[in-house]
Amino acid sequence: MLDPIFVVALGIVLVIVLIGFARLNAFLALLISAVVVSLAAPGAWEMKIARVGQAFGTTAGKIGIVIALAAVIGKCLMDSGAADRIVRTCLRLIGENRAPVALMTSGFVLSIPVFFDTVFYLLVPLARSLYRQTRKRYVQSILVIAGGAAITHTLVPPTPGPLVIAETLGVDIGKLIAAGILVGIPAAVVGLFAANLLDRWNPIPMRPYPGEEQLPIPRDSDLPPFGIAILPVILPVILISSNTVVQVLAKSASFPQAPLRVLAMVGDPNAALLLSALVAMATLKWKRGLSLAELAKRCEEALMSGGVIILITSAGGAFGAMLQQTGISERLPALLSLESQEIGRFWLIAAFLIAAVMKTAQGSSTVAMITTSAMIASLFPAGELASHIQCDPVYLALSIGAGSLVFCWMNDSGFWVVARMSGLTEMEALRLWTVQAAVVGIAAFLAALCAAAVFPMV
User: Fold this and answer.
1) Which pLDDT score is estimated for 344?
2) Residue-range domain boundaries for the chain
3) What does the pLDDT average to over 351-363?
4) Which of 85, 164, 286, 361 is the most exposed place for a label (fewest CB within 10 A)?
């Protein structure tokens, strides 16, 4: 049997060669690489190809409807002038120079209850509209949205990764929410500066989506009112956030269960985005006076661009799943010599590095967080974690979350979401988003390390 590290390295090199040098389409490159890795990984031969398709389908099942609906929402926001209205209102309130702060804050806040991909889909039309208004700093706008969303996605419950870390390490969820936000704020500030520098070094203009027509900038009187314009953005956030409240209230017998079940249903991301898409479509029809046939054509254009994103993202998910099939999760502990339990607070550094290696190897931040937390928790007797690491385990949880942001590249479905929705090439996304994710991840870890030294809470 081939060593898992060799197989993972083979898959990584193959993706880079096929995309970076052979210039093969990203979907085909990721699919071929996933098949090669699956063939080299352990398992029954009759399942080696089938499991690639299963992993592709699993990823598509999770994100396919969301991406398709988000593409429709984004198209309608742009064509109806709703995105322009939101941007113009924000610029009047905070000024053009502080627009990146607003976008970073939006991504940071919205990603606490909503998944990273969904937040990015919802906000990227605002970045594109901002560029149409100002004709500058498109890269910065994209990076601050993605950076802000990624920080809270990996540090703050109730997103799955931090939630599982809290349960595995015995960390109070409320404490992790507060600590994650406090540690995330300086990381977001660093991300703002990093995005500004990356934009100056790589001033890439906004590119139209395939088949998209560049519409003239509308007059202010042609735009929908702000309340209606922002409704497709905040409606799914409110509905999806209601799931968190429902889960808490459902545990209490004093609350009627029927309304809670209704809230849970409409709080599903697919249902929430469907309602949002309907609102966005109605706004577009109203403001542009479109016939139903014309509205259907606009939606079809959006779905065509969304279909490409779904294919590439799902192929990236299949590739990451095949890397997990190699057994890399079991191989890493021995490689990293984790048998020592007397290194005290250096466990924060070890946890950060392990999570970073796990993320690099298999692509999923959530998998990296879950695997690393389980790996570390298994090394200590129950209830003795704080005494061994010489600080509150919440800092260990934050270190793991920060590590899962490094290194975001082609085996991560989020990488492809950012690249395709932003109109960046693979190499541009590696130079920009991969670097931005690493910067905010390292900044979050350093903030957690400093907080552990000043306020160990043991």
Assistant:
1) 59
2) 62-313, 332-454
3) 84
4) 286
